[in-house]
Write a structure and sequence with these properties.
With 205 residues, the protein is an alpha+beta fold. The chain has two domains: 19-54, no CATH class; 60-202, tt1808, chain A (Alpha-Beta Complex), CATH 3.90.1570.10. The protein is built from five helices and 13 strands. The chain has helices at residues 19-22, 33-37, 60-80, 135-148, 198-202; strands at 45-48, 51-54, 83-87, 92-95, 98-100, 104-108, 120-121, 125-129, 153-158, 163-170, 173-180, 185-187, 195-197. The chain has a six-stranded mixed beta sheet with strand order 3-6-8-9-10-11. The chain has a five-stranded mixed beta sheet with strand order 2-1-5-4-7, covered by helices on one side. It has a two-stranded antiparallel ribbon with strand order 12-13. The longest helix has 21 residues, at 60-80. The model has no long low-confidence stretch (mean pLDDT 89).
């Protein structure tokens, strides 16, 4: 006669965070480049001089805009063999101790030596889709960071304002090269002939 094994009691859930896991990582302010680069996660995580920042999970709308812009950029540069475009997550080192993960990033073919497997050393063009919870980060902080890193062109794609602003580097800061609204087209300075229909990009499906 077979017997039914006694059911093992599952441990009761605790409301306490998994502190033991957290203690495997450095405290904020004490992260090194090596600590950051060895972080294995499917989240977008950026790094600034000892501090890590976990970015919000993108929405479907955000990702549809990213894919639209990436496809348009890749089609343009691919036919002309101008360089390489990728999408986040991809670490871009702006300076020692500072990494960002732009939504779309492009490097000219002549700068291929700066495209490492773990991270890129800067970029030639970056695009960011502005999120409601990260407006200051995209509109102010990243504008400053990318300019100081000498990235020649920065596209700010703002679904709330229905605009795409193309910034081009002038010295150590950006100036507005193009600000296109719903019915207009955003045009690149770096990539002559590359343009994006604003309404199509922001209503991508």
């Amino acid at each position: 006669m077979s017997t039914i094994p006694a059911r093992t009691e599952r441990p009761k859930p605790s409301s306490e965070p998994a502190w033991a896991i957290a203690k495997l990582y450095p405290d904020q302010g004490y992260w090194s480049d090596r600590d950051y680069l060895s972080l294995d996660t499917n989240h977008l995580v950026e790094f600034t001089h000892g501090y890590v920042e976990v970015l919000p999970m993108p929405t479907q709308r955000h990702q549809l805009i990213v894919v639209f812009l990436f496809d348009a950029l890749r089609a343009f540069i691919g036919a002309r063999k101008l360089g390489r475009a990728l999408i986040a997550p991809l670490r871009v080192r702006l300076e020692p101790g500072k990494y960002r993960e732009p939504d779309v990033v492009f490097m000219l073919a002549e700068h291929a030596g700066r495209m490492g497997n773990d991270f890129w050393e800067g970029a030639d063009l970056v695009m960011e889709i502005v999120s409601d919870e990260g407006r200051q980060r995209d509109l102010e902080e990243k504008r400053r960071d990318y300019a100081l890193a000498k990235i020649p062109e920065y596209w700010i794609v703002d679904p709330r304002e229905q605009t795409i602003t193309v910034l081009t580097l002038s010295g150590d800061h950006y100036v507005v090269a193009c600000e296109a609204h719903g019915g207009g087209k955003a045009t690149s300075v770096l990539l002559q002939g590359f343009e994006v229909d604003v309404a199509a990009a922001l209503s991508a499906e």
